[in-house]
């Protein structure tokens, strides 16, 4: 398919899990009505609240959150990227921060578990430690579909260009970045980082974000956007819950990759830091 319509949903997720999922499912209805072939959601789509409840709200991959999204994918025959939710880990106090891609038949195509976790310590004082509650994934994930080859990532991953370069070298041409960027970092870093990842990898970037004040968490920045392979922001959300759409043009992407063949000129043997 040379073109497809992507929808990216900006949400103000709180601590009522089913209420959050119900709003997300309504966005799938809206995306289908807008003619979208693909719809994506932000990080922590189903729950943002006290961290000591992460294990309580976590689910297996075949749990109710994925099943409800899968039913919508089947109903409208479109791809659904669930954003991320907390996945249960047997015999562990921690969870995975996991995203799932569902095909138009509602089948689980692939899964990504957030690789880079946000831990920060300044002057010996722990400011934030995501790894206390969340276990890291270990794999870069690319997913080939009839629409595009998607590269999967989550939020803090955005600050690690090697992950995106790896996915691009494996064929990814549309990068997904479901996020919950804080207001403090988002106002200065969100758009420049998204545009950089698009330009570096000559890829589209679809970045659905969280917005608003959160229970037991920092205020989030929002500004959900879609960036093209030239680094142009082709769609951006306002400061509210809403869905945006953009046409993903694979012929345009290939044109830009022919004009600047940086992916072919990469010399990974030089960059090896091991």
Characterise this structure.
- With 274 residues, the chain is an alpha/beta fold.
- It has one domain (3-265): Carbon-nitrogen hydrolase (Nitrilase/N-carbamoyl-D-aminoacid amidohydrolase).
- The protein is 29% helix and 31% strand.
- It has eight helices and 17 strands.
- It has helices at residues 17-33, 54-57, 64-76, 161-169, 183-201, 250-259, 262-265, 268-271, and strands at residues 3-10, 38-40, 79-88, 95-102, 108-113, 119-122, 125-129, 134-135, 141-144, 149-152, 174-176, 204-207, 211-214, 217-221, 225-227, 233-236, 242-249.
- Strands 1, 2, 3, 4, 5, 8 and 17 form a seven-stranded mixed β-sheet that branches. The chain has a six-stranded mixed β-sheet with strand order 9-10-11-12-15-16, covered by helices on one side. A two-stranded antiparallel ribbon has the order 6-7.
- α4 links the parallel β10 (149-152) and β11.
- α1 (17-33) packs parallel to α3 (64-76).
- The longest helix has 19 residues, at 183-201.
- 46% of the residues are buried.
- The mean pLDDT is 95.
- It comes from Haloferax marinum.
- This is Carbon-nitrogen hydrolase family protein.
- Residues 4-250 form the CN hydrolase domain.
């Amino acid at each position: 398919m040379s073109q497809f319509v992507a929808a990216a949903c900006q949400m103000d997720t709180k601590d009522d899990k089913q209420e959050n999922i119900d709003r997300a499912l309504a966005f799938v209805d809206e995306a289908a009505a807008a003619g979208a072939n693909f719809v994506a959601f932000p990080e922590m789509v189903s729950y943002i609240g006290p961290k000591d409840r992460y294990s309580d709200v976590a689910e297996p991959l075949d749990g109710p959150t994925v099943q409800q999204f899968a039913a919508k994918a089947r109903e409208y025959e479109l791809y659904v990227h669930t954003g991320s939710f907390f996945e249960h880990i047997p015999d562990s106090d921690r969870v995975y921060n996991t995203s799932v891609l569902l095909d138009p038949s509602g089948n689980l195509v692939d899964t990504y578990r957030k690789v880079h976790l946000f831990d920060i310590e300044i002057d010996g004082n722990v400011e934030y430690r995501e790894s206390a509650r969340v276990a890291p994934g270990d794999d870069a994930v690319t997913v080939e579909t009839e629409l595009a080859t998607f590269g999967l990532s989550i939020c803090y991953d955005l600050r690690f260009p090697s992950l995106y370069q790896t996915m691009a070298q494996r064929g990814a041409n549309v990068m997904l970045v479901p996020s919950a960027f804080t207001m403090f970092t988002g106002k200065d870093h969100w758009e420049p980082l998204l545009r950089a990842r698009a330009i570096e990898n000559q890829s589209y970037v679809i970045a659905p974000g969280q917005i608003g004040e959160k229970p037991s968490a920092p205020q989030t920045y929002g500004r959900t956007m879609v960036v093209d392979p030239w680094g142009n922001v082709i769609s951006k959300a306002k400061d509210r819950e809403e869905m945006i759409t953009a046409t993903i043009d694979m012929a345009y992407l290939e044109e830009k990759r022919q004009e600047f063949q940086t992916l072919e000129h990469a010399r990974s043997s030089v960059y090896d830091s091991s």
